[in-house]
Write a structure and sequence with these properties.
- The chain is 5% helix and 50% strand.
- By secondary structure, it is mainly beta.
- The strands form 2 sheets. Strands 2, 4, 5, 6, 9, 10 and 11 form a 7-stranded mixed sheet that branches.
- A hairpin with a 6-residue loop joins strand 5 and strand 6.
Length: 125
């Protein structure tokens, strides 16, 4: 079973930057696709970005394209989310999810195998 754990959340002013980290551990964790999701206050969880371990293909929600970058360090089994030019509407609890199939992360998030506990990002205007 794979376990994931996020870190790096915090408070920042609009226009600022933060980098989130997601460490994966467990059997075959290096073969897992990883994704970032977020849940704004009072709203449902939504997709932010994902990366496939194999080819390293990346995917983004339209709302974060050009501002957020997902990347990975295979040696550390860690995925990062670099968030630049943050906006108040980016305020949310950010979750990392891991699954053997990138399609699950992109299209069936309710079936994602492993979730972290979440990390809060607050962007003030």
């Amino acid at each position: 079973q794979v376990h994931v754990m996020e870190s790096g959340g915090g408070s920042v002013q609009a226009g600022g930057s933060l980098r989130l980290s997601c460490a994966a551990s467990g059997r075959s964790s290096s073969n897992y696709a990883m994704g970032w999701f977020r849940q704004p206050p009072g709203k449902e969880r939504e997709f932010v970005a994902a990366i496939n371990w194999g080819a390293g293909n990346t995917y983004y929600a339209d709302s974060v394209k050009g501002r957020f970058t997902i990347s990975r360090d295979n040696a550390k089994n860690t995925v990062y989310l670099q968030m630049n030019n943050l906006k108040p509407e980016d305020t949310a609890v950010y979750y990392c999810g891991g699954d053997q199939n990138i399609v699950t992360i992109l299209h069936r998030p309710l079936r994602v195998e492993a979730w972290g506990q979440g990390t809060l990002v607050t962007v003030s205007s």
